[in-house]
Design goal:
It comes from Flavobacterium hydrophilum. The chain is of the alpha+beta class. The chain contains 3 helices and 5 strands, in the order H-H-E-H-E-E-E-E. A 5-stranded antiparallel sheet has the order 1-5-4-3-2. It is elongated.
Length: about 120
Amino acid sequence: MKTCLECAEKIVGREDKKFCSDSCRNAYNNKINKDSTNFMRNVNNKLRKNYRILCELNSEGKSKATRDKMVNKGFDFDFFTNILQTKTGNTYYFLYDQGYRSLDNDYFMLVKKEI
């Protein structure tokens, strides 16, 4: 007799079932996949916010924005997912597929990586 991984109720049905219902399956997976600490949750929220801001400012795939405009929308320059150094010496900071690099006079080049 198999029991549900979430509520330990008896499972009826297919031999390979692990949960008694969709709600138990969802509850179990939500527990496993939730951010384990407030620190992780806060970092992930900042990354998501930065990503949304870049998507909003860079709807065309390539554009420019000022530091003030980005900061006023809530952008935090301390949070990004990776750095790309080009052969020409330019440094791009990326949030997933959205990136930016510093230009003169507090301007930033915003780019989208084709994936």
